[in-house]
């Protein structure tokens, strides 16, 4: 039986908390899980589903529904099958079918599934579902900056609309690119000690964005250029700006996550000397 998060009874809620925490050293609280599941990207819980057999949770998945009516795409993430059950293939198939039904109801024309679980991947291959691309983490060894960095303006109340426009224009055709909404920008601005979101300026024009995450001495970044600014060599300059920024923060490592299908960005990073260091997830397209 498949249920979405909002349909679970009290016993099933207790069971799914146990299921999610079964292999975790740092257990998640109900509040943490509830806040995540009831986010807008999962339509406030309707996109989180559980496969229930008897009184046990045997599998689950979260479906990002936020992009369905904007781009016609749904993403299935955090697919998890209980490793103790024998018939994993059937449990997986049931979750996939219900995920597809939900995504189509929300207007999805394409559905992608991301995982790095070897057992799940093996079963996907059994179902003739093959990998299309990967998300990989890359790290940089040669951190010497090659170009003068661009001017950066920090995200604020005054420029949030410009940031929103730049971000969504930069990511509108990028594989796995999400659409940013105003409430998310508000959360960025509210984090006064961690608002590492910037607008990049070239010739007094706002042409791109940079966002940084620094934790435990490791710096990661993401970047984007508006469509009209591409093909002019600005990508290399904004990349050097990101490296320069993180060098100034004296991080011990510089990294990023990129989708291999995004060949323009992926090739640019490789040419700059970024090396693949970790598989984040493999991505499969569902019929």
Keywords:
alpha+beta; Aminopeptidase; single chain; about 290 residues; 2 domains; about 35% helix
Helix content: 25-40%
State the end-to-end distance. 22 Å
| Uncertain stretches of 5 or more adjacent residues | none
**How many strands, which pairing sense, and closed or not: the largest β-sheet?**
12 strands, mixed
Model description:
The protein is of the alpha+beta class. A twelve-stranded mixed β-sheet has the order 1-2-3-4-5-12-6-11-10-9-8-7, sandwiched between helices. Helix content is 34%, strand content 32%. The mean pLDDT is 95. It is built from nine helices and twelve strands. The protein has helices spanning 10-21, 30-37, 68-71, 88-105, 118-126, 160-171, 182-190, 234-248, 263-272, and strands at 2-4, 48-53, 56-64, 73-81, 110-115, 131-140, 151-154, 197-202, 205-215, 218-225, 253-259, 274-286. The protein folds into two domains: 2-129, Aminopeptidase (3-Layer(aba) Sandwich); 139-281, Aminopeptidase. Strand 2 and strand 3 (56-64) form a beta hairpin.
Report a brief summary of the structure.
It is built from nine helices and twelve strands.
What topology emerges from the helices and strands here?
Elements: E1 2-4, H1 10-21, H2 30-37, E2 48-53, E3 56-64, H3 68-71, E4 73-81, H4 88-105, E5 110-115, H5 118-126, E6 131-140, E7 151-154, H6 160-171, H7 182-190, E8 197-202, E9 205-215, E10 218-225, H8 234-248, E11 253-259, H9 263-272, E12 274-286
Parallel strand pairs: 4-5, 10-11
Antiparallel strand pairs: 1-2, 2-3, 3-4, 5-12, 6-11, 6-12, 7-8, 8-9, 9-10
């Amino acid at each position: 039986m498949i249920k979405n998060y909002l349909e679970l009874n009290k016993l099933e809620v207790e069971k799914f908390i146990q299921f999610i925490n079964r292999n975790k050293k740092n257990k998640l609280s109900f509040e943490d899980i509830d806040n995540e599941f009831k986010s807008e990207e999962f339509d406030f819980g309707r996109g989180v589903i559980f496969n229930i057999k008897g009184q046990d949770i045997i599998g689950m998945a979260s479906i990002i529904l936020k992009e369905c009516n904007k781009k016609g795409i749904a993403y299935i993430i955090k697919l998890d099958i209980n490793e103790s059950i024998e018939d994993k293939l059937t449990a997986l198939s049931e979750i996939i079918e219900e995920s597809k039904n939900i995504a189509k109801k929300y207007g999805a024309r394409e559905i992608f599934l991301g995982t790095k679980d070897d057992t799940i991947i093996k079963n996907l291959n059994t179902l003739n579902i093959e990998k299309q691309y990967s998300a990989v983490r890359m790290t940089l060894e040669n951190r010497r900056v090659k170009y003068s960095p661009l001017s950066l303006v920090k995200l604020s109340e005054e420029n949030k609309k410009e940031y929103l426009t730049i971000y969504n224009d930069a990511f509108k055709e990028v594989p796995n690119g999400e659409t940013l909404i105003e409430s998310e920008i508000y959360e960025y601005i509210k984090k006064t000690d961690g608002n590492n979101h910037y607008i990049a300026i070239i010739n007094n024009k706002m042409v791109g964005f940079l966002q940084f995450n620094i934790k435990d001495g490791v710096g990661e970044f993401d970047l984007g250029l508006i469509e009209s600014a591409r093909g002019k060599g600005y990508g290399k300059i904004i990349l050097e700006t990101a490296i320069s920024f993180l060098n100034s923060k004296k991080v011990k490592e510089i990294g990023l996550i990129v989708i291999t299908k995004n060949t323009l960005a992926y090739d640019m990073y490789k040419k700059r000397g970024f090396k693949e260091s970790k598989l984040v997830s493999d991505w499969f397209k569902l019929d």
